């Protein structure tokens, strides 16, 4: 079976590594797309760096539009073409970066990703998650290649809110939980074995350094722990997605997609909802309470939500809407047994009850 693997050509990592970007990118016209907050962080850094390095190029900055929707992606393509850009910089969180990657793919331009929060592996992966104009999950867009340059600068990540690091930790833990259930703990083929091993490495890193990394971001002091979990969230998790042959997401991501049907939950945070979904997946698997409780304790240490109350108050009707959407996704089809609405709702309530018996979690900031 033939396949094409695309990895980033360059990954810059470490505190202050943004300073190296113009030794790799020799561009004349840079079009930067990002979220409002991300642009406020990155715009002065790039302009000051260009002056300090005496970089001779033109640069423009644009808000990406707020959603990874076809309309916004097409608008970004028009803006890049109108500026005659020769490279796109995608900065911000997962949605801004996914939108920038999609625009680069459609225009045939190289793309540099500069995450300002560590919420997903979007900066490294070769896919973009698409939504409609209202933020409801739509589809997964497979890109022609992974980003050309990835900038993983701890000084930038440490300026972001703790909740988005927590989201990255929750999303990255899914690399083990979901791939394990899909493969039955025994993946076949070399690439699947490598992807599964990477997922276990991600888990081990988060188990060891996750809580400390959260504290470093809370203090805005990037240290060793943050650097380790950034490797897990971005590089190892991204490589897991790239190497996995076939489907590698299951109930945790399906539940996130279910939550996007409700306005009150769709903006809560991809990784935070996936993180809660990880725990529900363990219940759906039929794992023992002690194992689920250990996972809950780790999630709490990483400030990932472990009960429905921490996400939103949902009526029975709203919970059913979430469950109906989730069980009809292709991701839920990857579960080894059929998951019904009733089973999923039971799992959400069961995890929430178990969480009350575990140590309390500090609120997500």
Q: What fraction strand?
A: 5-15%
Count of alpha and pi helical runs: 15
Radius of gyration: 20 Å
Uncertain segments are 361-365
Overall shape: it is globular
Main sheet characteristics: 6 strands, parallel
Distance between the termini: 47 Å
Order of helices and strands: EHEHEHEHEEEEHHHHHHHHHHH
- Order of strands in the sheet with most strands: 1-8-5-4-2-3
- Average pLDDT: 93
Structural class: alpha/beta
Report helical residue fraction: 40-55%
Q: Say how many strands there are.
A: 8
Describe this structure as you would to a colleague:
The protein is an alpha/beta fold. The protein has helices at residues 21-24, 36-52, 70-82, 94-107, 154-157, 162-183, 190-218, 224-243, 251-259, 263-266, 270-285, 289-301, 308-311, 316-327, 341-356, and strands at residues 10-13, 29-34, 58-63, 87-92, 111-115, 127-131, 137-142, 149-152. It has a 6-stranded parallel sheet, sandwiched between helices. Strands 6-7 form a two-stranded antiparallel ribbon. α7 (190-218) runs antiparallel to α8 (224-243). The chain is globular. The protein starts with 9 loop residues before the first strand and ends in a 9-residue tail after the last helix. 50% of the residues are buried. Mean pLDDT is 93; it is low at 361-365.
